[in-house]
Amino acid sequence: MASVCSFLPDLLCKFPAIDDTTIRMIRKSVDEGFKALVRTYTNAIDVLVQPLQVFLNFLENLFVSSPWIVILAAMVAIVYYGSRDMRITIGTIVSMLLIGLVGLWNDTMVTLAMVTVCTLIAILVGIPIGILMARSERAQSVINPILDVMQTMPSFVYLIPVVMIFGIGKVPGLIAVVIYAVPPMIRLTNLGIRLVDKEVLEAADAFGSSQWQRLKNVQIPLALPTIMAGINQTIMMSLAMVVVASMVGVGGLGLQRAAGDQQPVLHRRLLQRFRARGDRHHF
Amino acid sequence: MASHAIEVKNLYKIFGPRGRDFVDQVKTGLGKTELNEKHGHVLGLQDINISMPAGGVMVVMGLSGSGKSTLIRHINRLIDPTAGEVLYDGVDVCKMSENDLREFRRHKTAMVFQKFALLPHRTIIENTVYGLEIQGVPEAESRKRAQGWIERVGLKGFENHYPNQLSGGMQQRVGLARALTNDADILLMDEAYSALDPLIRVDMQTVLLDLQKELKKTVVFITHDLDEALRLGDKIAILRDGKVIQQGTGQDIVLKPADEYITAFVKEVNRGRVINVETIMKPLSGNPEGVPVTIGTVLESAARMMTVANQNVAHVVDANGKPVGSIDLGTIISAMVTPISHQLQAA
Question: What's the fold here for domain B52-85+96-270?
Fold first, then answer.
């Protein structure tokens, strides 16, 4: 390398990075600016996330304090209604019973509440954004790279700023999970709407549908299978991320899992893995 | 509710981001190929002037790429023109505001599509009420009206089936019922029967002709099939490369093809089903002889009547039964055979 460099001016050989002192200054001002921002808006942020906190607590209380048999019955009913498949239903019962037997029922309920709230938020946020993207090329060209960043960035990287803004607790965990789980919802809603048969859309226009009628009667119903696939992905990703979010104070199975990492006891970790699988079945 | 004529005037469509800039050049002779090669724009329609008869069937015929589907989409403005006017009842559809256009589409037009374009998640009855539903007609009322049309097109008993449970021909009947339920003056049919089997197609043509006898809507029918055009059309316009090369009645086109392209087309046509007796009759000399044949009867039917009656001559009568001319079998046969001049031109 050195031999090549001898033919070239220094500037083109070694990348002219900004020097350390300047970098340090930039870093400091960014940090301080950020901190000042957070400090100024602390109250506003708290008010903003209050409803999330309330909803999450409510659901968690409901799941944890209800008798296990009620929860199990509700679950079985949902699974059977959704799948119409006896095998999946029995599988659910067996795995839930095993979870209960190994003493992780309460943790599972906490996780379940978390995943439910995250999924609901992801759907609520994701579908409108997906629709917006499908309707406007410009929106798509702006949002797509943002989604790319959200999906490529390791979750730990944005977990830290989220904690800086919202502090330690359930809500920052929730927000981190939603950031992680919402991209497939947005992408698949967009894709589903874009794939709707052009002739059917033309027919809807020819009969004089308004934009809303066209969305409600044609685009959403025809995109529904793809949107459902998006919801499925979102649930899976929420579940995966809840484990990571346990590091910032989200309770439930993730906490067990984090503890398990510190004491590598094989049977414990195996049980947790098994349970994580069982959880997925409920959706 | 009387139907009105549709007037298409000086209509141009140039596809591409700067279509408007090229209209003048096209008017002064820039061709389709040149426009595409030099400027990357596609000439869709060029100086279209058609007057579509009120309460009649206007057929626009052309091969694929001739611009016929583009033309029909200008009537309800699914496609915006680059220049020109589409007048219905004195109003230019192309200048309507978004709201007026929506109202126009809801109440004045209904469309039937080549690939049916039914909503797959809705049953037949739910598809049929679609037009009324978006107009805000109460459900009970719209269901009642839709039910009537479902029965008229012969789909009674299938109301609660889904489109994918029906054959192509049946799906298109749903498409037709959906359009008719709207009770609009204008019925736009974009290659509505092109995807159907020949026998079912003829069947559906009969359905349309029977309905049209009582409904008297202004129908615009797009097809690439000359036989279909001749059977349905009160007036026919033939499109090629975005230009109208001939328009007139079926007889006009078969008897006086404007150029070799149309000659080649009409060569294969069964003239006996297109040409009427009054076109070839001779003035009445002496007493009316043989069987009476009403004006408007096609040659094939006249020949059949004469052979059944075992006579070589017949006289033509008008709607009131008054004799107006005479014909004989020899004249009929020579008119039914493609003239030698056409054969040569086409070859």
Answer: Rossmann fold (3.40.50)
Beta strands B109-112 and B6-15 are unpaired
CB B132 within 8 Å of CB B181: yes
Question: pLDDT of A69-111, one tens digit each?
Answer: 999 999 999 999 988 889 999 999 999 999 999 988 888 888 8
Q: How many CB pairs under 8 A join A and B?
A: 58
* Mutation site for B-interface testing, chosen from A198, A207, A215, A218 by largest number of B Cβ within 10 Å: A207
pLDDT at A280 exceeding the cut of 50: no
C-beta separation of A66 from A188 below 8 A:
no
pTM of this prediction?
0.79
Q: Check CB contact under 8 Å for A207 and B117.
A: no
Are both B52-85+96-270 and B272-346 of the same fold? Answer: no
Interface check for A206 against chain B (CB to CB < 8 A): the answer is yes
Q: Which residue has the higher pLDDT, A244 or A272?
A: A244
CB contact under 8 A, A199 and B117: yes
* Token representation of residue B104: 């126009």
Q: What is the pLDDT of residue A256?
A: 62
- Locate A158 and state its tokens: 């944005």
Given this model, what pLDDT does residue A269 score? 53
- B215 burial type by CB count under 10 A (0-12 exposed, 13-18 middle, 19+ buried): middle
Give residue A281's pLDDT.
Answer: 43
Q: Which residues in chain A touch residue B130, judged by CB atoms under 8 angstroms apart?
A: 204, 207, 217
Domain with residues B272-346, CATH architecture: Roll (3.10)
Tens-digit pLDDT profile for residues B26-80: 888 888 888 888 888 999 999 999 999 899 999 999 888 889 999 999 999 999 9
- What is the per-residue pLDDT for A31? 85
pLDDT at residue B94 greater than cutoff 50? yes
> Domain map of chain B by residue range?
52-85+96-270, 272-346
Q: By C-alpha distance, which of A126, A125, A117 is closest to A173?
A: A117
pLDDT digits (tens, 9 = 90+) for A245-259: 877 767 667 666 555
Domain range summary for chain A, segments of one domain joined by +: 28-65+102-281
CA distances from A100 to A68, A87, A114, A265, B103 (A): 9, 20, 18, 20, 61
Q: What are phi and psi of A264, to 5 degrees?
A: -70, 75
CB-based contact B121 A222, cutoff 8 Å: yes
Alpha-carbon torsion, ordered B163, B164, B169, B175, to 10 deg:
30
Q: Do A208 and B105 touch (CB under 8 A)?
A: yes
Nearest CA among B246, B178, B248, B220 for reference residue B78 = B220
> Which of A149-158, A180-189, B229-238 bottoms out in mean pLDDT, i.e. has the lowest?
A149-158
Q: Do B78 and A210 touch (CB under 8 A)?
A: no
Instruction: Domain A28-65+102-281: give its CATH code.
Output: 1.10.3720.10
Q: Which residues of A touch B111 (CB under 8 A)?
A: 203, 206-207
- Do the Cβ atoms of A203 and B113 come within 8 Å? yes
As a whole number of angstroms, the distance between CA A123 and CA A185 comes to 7
Cα B76 to Cα B221: distance, rounded to the nearest angstrom: 14
